[in-house]
Amino acid sequence: MPDPQIEKLLIVQDRDIALQKIEEELARIPRERAKIEALIETEKENIDAASQSLKEKEVQRSELDHAVKGKESDIARFKNQQLEVKKNDEYRALTQQIEQAEAEIAQLEETEIKLMLDIDSTREAFEAEKTTIEARIQDQHEEIKQLGEREQNLKDSIDAAKQALAASREGIEANYIEHYDRVKKLAKRPPYVAAIQQHKCGGCHLRVSNEVSRGAMDAGEPHFCDQCARMVYA
Ligand SMILES: [Zn+2]
Question: Which fold would CATH assign to domain 4-172?
Answer without folding.
Answer: Helix Hairpins (1.10.287)
